[in-house]
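INFO worker-7 received task bundle
INFO bundle size: 2
INFO processing item 0
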Amino acid sequence: MTSAVDPTRFCDLARNEEPTCTTAAVVAIKDPTGAQSWGCETHAGRALEAIAGARISRFHDASAAQRLLALPWNHGGGAGLGR
């Protein structure tokens, strides 16, 4: 996985009632059904806390991924990374 942010990829995790997020996506979140979406650190954190069984599947920013792994959603202390 690369550490550089993909400048062409923007956050897809904003909720329907929110305006489109124009922040660069740094991690991909995969839910238990296998659906995957890229998001900024803020929206990825919200998704990880709201979706049971969601995991980080890919990332462009290792620092952001580490900060997200430290959030309460990863309460089990496991890797929090999925494939």
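INFO item 0 finished
INFO processing item 1
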Amino acid sequence: MEAAIRFLKSQAILVTVVDRDAQVRQYFVSGKRDRKFAEEVIEIAIEKGWVE
């Protein structure tokens, strides 16, 4: 997850945690309106060219 966030940041796409205390974290991704789960953030990174 951290690698996907670093990759998106390198592409000028900001990813922030909605609530750090929540059991299931959700993220805001710049350019996206809805909250995203970790799996969705990883999918966005893969769409942008990230390879695990």
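INFO item 1 finished
INFO post-check item 1: The first strand starts at residue 15 and ends at 17.
INFO post-check item 1: Strands lie at 15-17, 26-29, 36-37.
INFO worker-7 idle
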